[in-house]
Amino acid sequence: MSSVESDIYDIIAEKSAVDRSKLQSDAKLEDLEIESLDVVEIIFAVEEKFDIHVPYNANDQELEFETIGDVVTAVQKLIDEEGASA
Amino acid sequence: MNRVVITGVGVFSAAGKSVPEFWETVRDGKSVIGPLTIIPTDDLHIKIGAEIKDFDPKEHFASKQLGLLDRFAQLALMASREAVEDSGMDFHGDEGLRAACLIGSGVGGQQTLDESYYRIYAQGRKGVHPFTIPRLMLNAACSHVAMEHGVRGPAFAVASACSSATHAIGQAFHMVRSGMVDTAVAGGTEACIALGTMKGWEAIRVMALDTCRPFSLGRTGMVLGEGAATVILESLDHAKARGAKIYAELAGFGMSSDAMDITLPDAGGAARAMEGALTDGGLNADDIDYVNAHGTGTAANDSTETRALRMALGDAAAEEAVVSSSKSVFGHALGGAGALELAVTTLAIQNGVVPPTANFTEPDPECDLDYVPNEPRELQIGAALSNSFAFGGLNAVLAVKRFDG
């Protein structure tokens, strides 16, 4: 597990009160019963941690982040992009 | 109990700084949402809103008075001047002792808060302006409206986020109906285009990047819009005695609390507020020809409000009624929204025209009522509802009837 992935798992476990052992790359946010306000708080914590902006909108009718792995991939991509432009 | 009528309307909004200008813009569905100019947007991801353009407060307030006025109080005063003049009421004599003043706002003096914190934390200044507290307090708008017009009866501010104005008007309605007062100045105001406030809304991830398109497929959220509106409420006997012009009858008021979630709306709670307004006004579901929806343009509100309309009115009456959201035109004025939207509802009844939901692109299967997309529609409205549902699950709904004597 990369350090980015590990940090994200820590954040999700803390903000959503889901047991960290249940967090896996293919676990769906919906199945973990992570509520919409928790998602917003998780995204904010990720932004603070990695100094990135995640263009997440809770109104998107097509869910951008279905699984934990989707979140990790998106964050890693943003870190690479924003790091490259810095 | 008194019958209660609306005898004056005043608005000060991005869609117009007077009732005629406002009505023309709203009726034609000309959305005034655009790039923000009154605050720097370099650090914002959301750079759009509905601003009041070409407003120089110095032209409308003496410098001594202006020093005490946050923008939210300025907007309320501007709206109240038009409403009071429109009604022909003079509160400075004995009438003022039998009059109430209730003005809602979600937050109060947001620009004052923003500027004061900036001085302390960013500029490292030692103090803030001595009028900081009187400018920012949530009742400042109410107090200035009462002072300027001489309203000396019950007066207070009402705060329930996006339902503030509707709660304020509903409370004033019950005061006039019960006979506690003869008249009331009631409404709401919000000057929400401040950097700190925009940051806060941006952070909760419900803001649209493009525009506000309520009930439409592909909607991406809400857009903030500043503004204020006030109405003059009056017992029918009092209005008749002085030969007042009557716009419409305020017939009923319903309130409820979801008691479920601090941000997510609940269809059951919203439906109970609508049912309450019908019962309070002695109206049946099939009396309702038009609903000015809360219609924020968020995924959650619009589908929930649609379900709530079906619950409250029943499927047949909900499908028969027409529904539109004026937030598509002038954005979401938060604590001022309910007053602006009651003004729209009243003007729609008076003019026999339903204003459209602007920016509508295509139907959403989860929003399956008639939302009057993009074009106004002529309709004789017998009765209408104006819906407000707030963060925190606090719902308020006003029922308005055409006045036929």
Structure explained in plain terms:
Chain A is an all-alpha fold and 86 residues long. Chain A has a single domain, classed as ACP-like (Non-ribosomal Peptide Synthetase Peptidyl Carrier Protein, Chain A, Orthogonal Bundle). Chain A has 3 helices and no strands. The model of chain A has no long low-confidence stretch (mean pLDDT 86). Helix content of chain B is 35%, strand content 20%. Chain B has a 10-stranded mixed β-sheet with strand order 5-4-6-7-1-8-14-13-9-10, with helices on both faces. Chain B has a two-stranded antiparallel sheet with strand order 2-3. In chain B, strand 13 (383-390) and strand 14 form a beta hairpin. By secondary structure, chain B is an alpha/beta fold. In chain B, helix 3 runs parallel beside helix 6 (140-149), helix 7 (164-178) crosses helix 14 (337-351) and helix 10 (267-280) crosses helix 11 (299-313). The longest helix of chain B is centred in the N-terminal third of the chain and has 17 residues, at 71-87. The mean pLDDT of chain B is 97. Chain B is built from 14 helices and 14 strands. The chains are: A mainly alpha (86), B alpha/beta (405).
Per-chain topology:
The complex is a heterodimer of chains A (about 90) and B (about 400).
Chain A: H1 3-16, H2 36-50, H3 68-85
Chain B: E1 4-13, H1 19-27, E2 34-35, E3 48-49, H2 63-66, H3 71-87, E4 99-104, H4 110-122, H5 132-136, H6 140-149, E5 155-158, H7 164-178, E6 183-190, H8 195-203, E7 227-235, H9 236-241, E8 248-257, H10 267-280, E9 288-292, H11 299-313, H12 315-320, E10 322-324, H13 327-330, H14 337-351, E11 353-354, E12 377-378, E13 383-390, E14 394-401
Parallel strand pairs in B: 4-5, 4-6, 9-10, 9-13
Antiparallel strand pairs in B: 1-7, 1-8, 2-3, 6-7, 8-14, 11-12, 13-14
Helix pairs in contact in B: 3-6, 7-14, 10-11
